[in-house]
Every structure is written in C-alpha cells, then in structure tokens.
Amino acid sequence: MARNSSSFKLDNATLSLFQDVNTGIIISVIYMLVTAINLVGNGLSMWLLLFRTSPKTPSIIFMINLTLTDLALGTALPFQIAYQLQGYHWTLGTRTCSFVTLMFYTNMYCSILTMMAIGIDRYLGIVKPMQFRQTRKRKFNAVIGCLVMWGLVLSVLYPLMTTDLTFDIPELGITTCFDVLKKDMLPSMLAWAAFLLSMVFILFLLPFCVTTFCYVSVIRKLARDSKTAQKERAIRLAFIVLLVFTVCFAPNNILLLSHTVLRLFYKKSAYMAYKLSLCFSCLNSCIDPFIYYFASKDFRQKLRQILNLQSLSSMDLVATDHKESLYSAQCTFEGQEREHSKVSLMPTQTTE
What we know:
The chain is mostly helical and 352 residues long. The protein has helices spanning 12-18, 21-52, 58-85, 94-126, 129-133, 138-156, 158-161, 189-223, 229-265, 271-295, 297-306; strands at residues 166-169, 174-177, 180-181, 349-350. 67% of the residues lie in helices and 3% in strands. The chain has a single domain (5-319, 336-350), classed as Rhodopsin 7-helix transmembrane proteins (Rhopdopsin 7-helix transmembrane proteins, Up-down Bundle).
C-alpha cells in the first residue's frame, strides 16, 4: 500500500498512457467543443428558465437545478483541458485539484438524481394524475428534493474533499490530478468498497432503474392513447432521454467499477476505455438545451421570440400565457417540463 508517490512505481501500461500525446489531444479537443456548446446553450437556457418562464413549477425547478449542474461542468472542463494539454501535469495545487474533481463528480451524480426526480414527476403527472393533483406544496417539495440530492452526493463524495488527489511521477516529471489514486486515500478495503458501491449503485444504478421505470410507464401510457402529434413527440423524447442516459452515464460508471476491481484484485487495467468514456458522459451537457427546445413549446416560443424567429404555424401561435407543458394534452394540471441527462469527470488508477 503506497503512502506517497516516491514509494511506488507505476507499471509500464500506466506510464504509456500518460505518454500517449495523441489521445490527450483528441480528448482535449472534444472537451473544448463540449465547453463552448455547454456554456452557450446552458447559459441561455438558465436565463430563460430563471427570467422568462413563470410560474416556477416543480419541473422548472428541477430543470434549473439540472442546468446549474451543466454549467458547473462547463466551468470545470477548462481546467481538465489545460491538464491534458500539459501532458497530465497538474500545476494548480492540491486544493484546486480536489475542488475541480469534486465539482466534476457532483455534476455527474446531481444530474443523474435530478433526471430521476424529473422522471418521477412526469410519471406521477401522466400515469397517476389523480394522486398527483392532490399533492400539496409541490414547489416546496421540489426545492427540498434538490437540496437532498446535493446533500446525498456531497456526503458520498466526502473523501474527495479531505484527500490529496495529486500524485507525483518522477520518471515523467509530472504531477497527476485524480488519475492515480493512493490506496491510503481510504483507511481500509471495506471503506473503498463502500465508497465505490455507493457511487455506482446508490448514485447511478438505483436512479437509472427508477428513471427507466418511470419513462417506460409514460411511454406505455401515451401509446395507449390517441396518436396526436404532441403525444408522439413526447414518446420520441422519452426514448431519447433513456438513450442519452444509457450512452452518457452507463459506460462511465460500469467502466469505473470494472477498472477498480481489475486494478485492486487482478493487477490489470481498463483505464483507457474509462478515460474515453468520460467524453461521452460530458456530451450530455451539450444535448440538454436542444432537448429543451424540442420538448417544450413554451421554451421554444420564448427562444424564438428572443431570436425574432416567431413561427407562423398555428401550433406555435397558441398563447404562451397558458404555459403548456410537453404533456399538456394528457395532463390538465401545471406541468412545464424540461428533459435532461448529464455528467461529469471521474477518477481512475488505484496504486498498488
């Protein structure tokens, strides 16, 4: 068990990874594109949600929380870009490394939990409308729900706040940030198991199962009804959300679990595949604003008004003060809803 970087030598496969310049450049370019689209798209989305959308329904509150996590990722990615372009060399100190890493993880798992909350909100509104209409203090519950999500994520990720996540590699003359983890980051193998399983099962797998159940139930419910254009759009959107959730978040978390098990017990590694999966997880933050546009008539109308592109179609000329949600033909109660799926950056090598 390594206590410091000078007492442990990395294997050749790991050293080769840090010397792979082409992969680092490719990942950096992808992150640059993600950052640009993220900040522009989510910045505009946040402005519309905060200042141009009223009233603030539970769905809007969840969407604001989700957009906030996307923007957090967008502001953190430039640090990762600089780190990659410098050949995996971190120069901003241990506290900044811990802060940026925590921001990445918090973004990913808060996005996943928020998507679950949106899925539950839609499930209740579409599949259980009578019970849902009787619910009181929905806005208050949504705000409390967002606070609980952040509290849960931060409690699971607490070790990242109290640990030096940098690691010196003298033979390469670099200092990594959260790419090589010391075993003594946690006091025992049991603590490592609890940390890993909490991230993968509590913060990913359980929300994924709940989200899948909710959207599959919504699709089945809408499929039994008449085929209006609005309902068909809702069904297509539900499929897209599940697809994005699966493509963006599932590979990253599965590879995180696989890599850690391989590293700890079999002296092998799946780190390169894991590193590449981070790119897919970040793409989620770019897709969200486009999902808003195609999912919500109100959001679409507000954006077109800003860009002076107001449609002359009869569908887009419906008065905006009704604040129709995506499922307004199915639900008679308030329901402006925005679709999301998001993520962030993760760790990786565990020293022997």
